[in-house]
C-alpha cells in the first residue's frame, strides 16, 4: 500500500493539466466516488490494527495532497474563465435590440391627420362614453331611427331615450361637442374609436376607428367639400386617383353623399378588393344639416358647413390589402412586424 501511495503522490505532484477537461479527469481518477482514494479507504478497512495505525495517517495525508492539488488547479482555471481581459472581443459586432413599430391603424391615422393639418385643420377629440344628445339627438336622428336600437348600440344606461348613455357609435358626436363649445369658424378632424354591437367576423367588429371632419364658416359650399376630399385622396393614394360621389342619406347632413375612389390595388381594372367594380367606398359626407347647426347654437342662416367621416380600418385594408378586420386587434407580432419599415 505504501508503494502505491508513493507512486500516486509522485503522479499528483507532477500533474499539469493542459485544459479544464484534463483536470476533471484527474478529479474523477483520484477524488471521484469510484476513484483511487475511495478504493484505498475501502482496502484500509480490512487491514489489521497494526497497519491501521501506520497507514491511517499516511492515507489522510495522501487524500489532503490530492484535494489541495485539485483545488489549486481549479482556482486557476476559474480565474481564467472569468478573466475579462482574455474573453471579451471588443471587435465583435454588438447584439442588435428589437425595435417596435407603429400599429398599421396608427400609421394610417397619422397620415390622414398630416394631410388635413396641411389644409389648416386642427385635431380634436371627444369621449368614448357618450350621452344620447351628442351621439344621436343633436345630430338630427329621429326618435325611431334604427341606429338607436339595442342591436347597433352598446347602451350603458337605457332609460327614456334622452337620458341614455352609450359607447359612441361614431365620431360625429365630437362635431357636436366642438360646435357647442366654440364659435365658428370650425375646421377640425376628430380621430377616435367607436363601438357597435356587431358579431365579430372578418368583415365586422364591435369596435373600430374613424376620422371625422368638420368645416363650418360663412359661404362654405358643396364645391369646397368636393375639392377638399379630392385633394385628400390625391395625397393619400397618389396623383390621378379618381373620385365619384353617390347621393346618400345621413340624418346630420343634407345633401349627403358617399365617396368612392378608384381602386388603388387594381387601378380600376377590377379585383377582389373592389369586387370587380373598380371603385371602393371610403367615406360618408355632406353639408351639415341646418338643424344640427341650430342644435349646437349656431346661426344656420349665417353659417354653412360640410362634414365627413371615414373608417380607418377600411382605408388600412385597402392600403395594405388586409382582408380580415380581426388582425388589427389580435396583436399577433407576425402581423405587426410587417409594418416595421414604416417606423416614423
Ligand atoms: N357617422 C357616419 C358613420 O358612422 C359617417 C359620416 C357620414 C360622418 C357623413 C359624417 C358625414 O360627418 O357627414 O357611418
What is shown here, in short?
The protein is of the alpha+beta class and 344 residues long. 41% of the residues lie in helices and 20% in strands. A seven-stranded mixed sheet has the order 1-5-6-10-9-8-7, with helices on both faces.
Q: Which ligands are bound? A: 3,4-dihydroxyphenylalanine
Indicate the proportion of strand residues: 15-25%
From the 3D coordinates, which CATH architecture of the largest domain would you assign? 2-Layer Sandwich
Structural class: alpha+beta
CATH class (first level) name of the largest domain: Alpha Beta
Strands in their spatial order, largest beta sheet: 1-5-6-10-9-8-7
Summarize the amount of helix as a percent range: 40-55%
Number of strands: 10
- What is the tally of helical segments? 13
Let me know the largest β-sheet: 7 strands, mixed
What does the overall shape look like? elongated
Helices and strands, with pairings:
Elements: H1 2-14, H2 20-31, H3 36-45, H4 49-82, H5 84-87, H6 104-118, E1 122-123, E2 129-131, H7 132-135, E3 155-157, E4 165-167, H8 172-181, E5 186-195, E6 207-217, H9 222-237, E7 243-250, E8 253-262, E9 279-288, H10 290-295, E10 304-311, H11 312-320, H12 327-330, H13 333-336
Residues 170, 172, 212, 250, 253, 284-286, 307-309 line the site of 3,4-dihydroxyphenylalanine.
Describe what you observe in this structure.
This protein has 344 residues and is an alpha+beta fold. It has two domains: 2-82; 105-342, BirA Bifunctional Protein, domain 2 (2-Layer Sandwich), CATH 3.30.930. The chain is built from 13 helices and ten strands. Bound molecules: 3,4-dihydroxyphenylalanine. The site of 3,4-dihydroxyphenylalanine has 11 residues, from strand 9 and strand 10.
Amino acid at each position: 500500500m505504501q508503494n502505491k501511495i508513493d507512486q500516486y503522490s509522485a503522479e499528483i505532484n507532477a500533474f499539469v493539466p493542459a485544459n479544464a477537461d484534463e483536470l476533471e479527469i484527474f478529479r474523477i481518477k483520484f477524488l471521484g466516488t469510484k476513484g483511487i482514494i475511495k478504493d484505498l479507504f475501502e482496502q484500509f478497512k480490512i487491514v489489521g490494527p497494526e497497519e491501521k495505525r501506520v497507514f491511517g495517517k499516511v492515507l489522510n495525508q495522501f487524500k489532503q495532497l490530492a484535494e489541495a492539488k485539485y483545488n489549486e488547479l481549479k482556482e486557476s482555471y476559474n480565474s481564467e474563465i472569468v478573466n475579462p481581459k482574455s474573453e471579451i472581443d471588443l471587435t465583435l459586432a454588438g447584439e442588435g435590440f428589437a425595435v417596435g413599430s407603429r400599429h398599421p391603424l396608427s400609421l394610417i391615422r397619422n397620415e390622414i391627420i398630416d394631410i388635413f393639418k396641411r389644409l389648416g385643420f386642427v385635431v380634436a377629440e371627444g369621449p368614448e362614453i357618450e350621452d344620447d344628445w351628442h351621439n344621436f339627438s343633436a345630430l338630427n336622428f329621429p326618435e325611431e331611427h334604427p341606429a338607436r336600437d339595442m342591436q347597433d348600440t352598446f347602451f350603458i344606461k337605457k332609460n327614456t331615450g334622452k337620458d341614455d348613455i352609450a359607447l359612441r357609435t361614431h365620431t360625429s358626436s365630437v362635431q357636436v361637442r366642438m360646435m357647442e363649445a366654440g364659435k365658428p369658424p370650425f375646421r377640425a378632424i376628430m380621430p377616435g374609436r367607436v363601438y357597435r354591437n356587431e358579431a365579430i367576423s372578418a368583415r365586422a367588429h364591435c369596435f373600430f376607428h374613424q376620422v371625422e371632419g368638420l368645416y363650418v364658416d360663412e359661404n362654405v359650399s358643396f364645391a369646397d367639400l368636393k375639392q377638399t376630399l379630392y385633394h385628400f385622396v390625391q395625397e393619400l393614394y397618389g396623383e390621378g386617383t379618381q373620385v365619384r360621389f353617390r347621393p346618400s342619406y345621413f340624418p346630420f347632413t343634407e345633401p349627403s353623399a358617399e365617396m368612392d375612389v378608384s381602386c388603388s390595388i387594381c387601378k380600376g381594372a377590377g379585383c377582389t378588393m373592389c369586387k370587380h367594380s373598380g371603385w371602393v367606398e371610403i367615406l360618408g359626407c355632406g353639408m351639415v344639416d341646418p338643424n344640427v347647426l341650430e342644435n349646437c347654437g349656431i346661426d344656420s342662416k349665417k353659417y354653412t358647413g360640410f362634414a365627413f367621416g371615414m373608417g380607418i380600418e377600411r382605408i388600412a385594408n385597402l392600403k395594405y390589402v388586409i382582408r380580415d378586420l380581426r388582425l388589427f386587434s389580435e396583436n399577433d407580432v407576425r402581423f405587426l412586424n410587417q409594418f416595421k419599415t414604416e417606423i416614423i
